[in-house]
């Protein structure tokens, strides 16, 4: 079976607070690479004319735009990170640049969320393709690969988050009025 493989680089920042003693509890960044492997939903023989699974540009355009415009230079935080309330109170205009995950934004979690998002895009666009494997290279020496269905590995409480929608969202934060945000931040 043929696979179409697309690679995109992006920069990001995150922090992991589940292990407060760990060095990753301090905000820091990485230059990452995401590699997606797409396959036809229903494999067919080449047609003897165009001889392609799908035009590369058609298959990758929306995905690359999403990575470039939304994921690149986003600040990845877990849904319970207190920094979210800080942004609500002090820089609400930046809430749209927070990529929020269920639990810590580890490389494993990012791979699952991005794979689910890509599959939502592919389904909504009517492509006969699906992402069957997604790799996130956190550093040149560390990577995580997810093969299969991201629903099988996302936390059960994850529900219908932004990663399941075929829109450009990277969080489900509701803008909170500044006065309410300040009251929450003072607690």
Automatic annotation (TrEMBL):
Its EC number is 4.1.2.50. Its cofactor is Zn(2+). It catalyses: 7,8-dihydroneopterin 3'-triphosphate + H2O = 6-carboxy-5,6,7,8-tetrahydropterin + triphosphate + acetaldehyde + 2 H(+). Keywords: Lyase, Metal-binding, Zinc. It comes from the Bacteria. Pathway: Purine metabolism; 7-cyano-7-deazaguanine biosynthesis. InterPro entries: 6-PTP_synth/QueD (IPR007115), 6-PTP_synth/QueD_sf (IPR038418). It is an enzyme of class 4 (lyase). Pfam families: PTPS (PF01242). Belongs to the PTPS family. QueD subfamily. Catalyzes the conversion of 7,8-dihydroneopterin triphosphate (H2NTP) to 6-carboxy-5,6,7,8-tetrahydropterin (CPH4) and acetaldehyde. This is 6-carboxy-5,6,7,8-tetrahydropterin synthase. It comes from Reyranella aquatilis.
């Amino acid at each position: 079976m043929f696979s179409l493989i697309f690679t995109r680089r992006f920069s990001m920042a995150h922090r992991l607070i589940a292990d407060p003693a760990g060095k990753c509890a301090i905000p820091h960044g990485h230059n990452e690479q995401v590699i997606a492997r797409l396959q036809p939903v229903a494999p067919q023989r080449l047609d003897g004319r165009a001889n392609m699974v799908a035009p590369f540009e058609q298959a990758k355009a929306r995905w690359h735009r999403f990575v470039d415009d939304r994921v690149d230079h986003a600040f990845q935080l877990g849904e319970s990170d207190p920094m979210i309330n800080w942004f609500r109170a002090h820089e609400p205009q930046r809430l749209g640049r927070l990529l929020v995950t269920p639990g810590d934004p580890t490389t494993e979690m990012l791979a699952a969320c991005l794979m689910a998002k890509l599959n939502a895009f592919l389904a909504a666009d009517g492509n006969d393709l699906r992402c069957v494997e997604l790799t996130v290279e956190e550093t040149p020496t560390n990577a995580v690969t997810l093969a299969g269905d991201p629903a099988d590995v996302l936390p059960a409480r994850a529900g219908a988050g932004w990663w399941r929608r075929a829109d450009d969202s990277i969080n489900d934060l509701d803008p909170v009025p500044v006065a309410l945000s300040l009251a929450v931040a003072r607690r």
